[in-house]
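batch_manifest entry 22 of 60
target: Glucose 1-dehydrogenase
source organism: Dyadobacter chenhuakuii
requested by: lab member K.T.
priority: normal
notes from requester: please return tokens only, no post-processing; we will run our own comparison against the previous entry in this batch. if the run fails, retry once and flag.
--- input ---
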Amino acid sequence: MKDKVAFVTGAAKGMGEAAVRSFAQAGAAVIIADVDMDAANTLARELTSSGARATAVHCDVTKSEDVKAAVEKAVSLYGGLDFAFNNAGVQARNVFTADMTEQEYDRVMDINLKGVWLCMKYELIQMQKQGGGAIVNNSSIGGIVGGPGRAAYHASKHGVIGLTKSAAAEYAAKGIRINAVCPGTIDTPMVQQMFSQGDLSEEDSKKGAPIGRIGQPQEIADAVLWLCSPQSSFVIGQALTVDGGITIL
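--- output ---
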């Protein structure tokens, strides 16, 4: 991926951070887009000190002006945009559908679903100018199955897959490949917080996966880089499940 440019949201921690590191290791310049600028700047400094090209950019994916400016920053600094991993997302408290507040529902949908659409919107505008590119959206196994207490989250992640498939059909002939990844339980700060709060059981998560463990962020990053690479050139509009086998049971 030498001389290519990658754009990652929710990039300072977890799966986003792993993807940033992998893109940089593969030779791409990387925009580290996040709302946590302390963590984003720390990551950017570490990568640039080792010779990589990386820039931290503040980006609230629910705000059109933030997303537009972040994509434009990638183009102005590095000359274009070749790859995007739309990873920014949030969980919600474990609560049944009728007990959820409107504010909770809106927050999850704004970040997890509207945020992916806004990112795709501006990424696609740029990629069309260039004549190609690859986009990977982060859905979840929650985009494939349901789960009690997580209606808003699962609805948002189902929506990401719908966006992915529809946009993929629209832009494949323009040289832009769009796919999604559907991670299972991954060892990220968000999941660790769910473990500590009792919203998710680490033991049950391990037992529920045929592989017998939870996943690592790097395993998602590897899938993202493959979906962005020429090795997946005939893969269009797919939701690639990376879950240790949870959803095959």
